[in-house]
Design goal:
Elements: E1 4-5, E2 10-16, H1 23-30, E3 36-42, E4 44-47, E5 67-70, E6 77-85, H2 87-97, E7 101-107, E8 113-119
Antiparallel strand pairs: 1-2, 2-6, 3-6, 4-5, 7-8
């Protein structure tokens, strides 16, 4: 996936559906509040975690970690927000979310190419 350059430097698009939408998490992770655009991811669903290690697990700040899983079913949809991040901010998001997840490139319903974290 290629980053977008909007004139203010290189920007990466990250589709978020959970904790990274919260202002306190954004401030702790990126050092600023990040604007975003509503969008939808088709062919995926959110699970609250099914393994023993995930049951009752929470991320920092008490935000529950939900797991994004690919189903391939176009009727499965996840609603979220696309954040526009610098490469350094994307690395900070990796540090926050990569435990038990991996970052993959997707195309959202709007046609925007974005990164998203899915179950590892």
């Amino acid at each position: 996936m290629s980053p977008v350059n909007d004139g203010s430097g290189t920007r990466e698009s990250l589709f978020t559906y959970g904790a990274l939408q919260a202002p306190d998490v954004q401030l702790d992770t990126f050092g600023r509040l990040v604007g975003g655009d509503d969008d939808t991811l088709s062919g995926f669903r959110l699970d609250d975690g099914e393994g023993p290690a995930e049951r009752g697990a929470a991320t920092m700040h008490g935000h529950r970690r939900r797991t994004l899983r690919h189903t391939g079913d176009p009727l499965d949809r996840v609603f979220g927000t696309v954040l526009h991040l610098s490469p350094a901010e994307l690395e900070a998001a990796d540090e926050y979310l990569m435990s038990g997840s991996r970052r993959v490139s997707v195309v959202l319903v709007s046609g925007v190419a974005a990164w998203v974290y899915v179950a590892a």
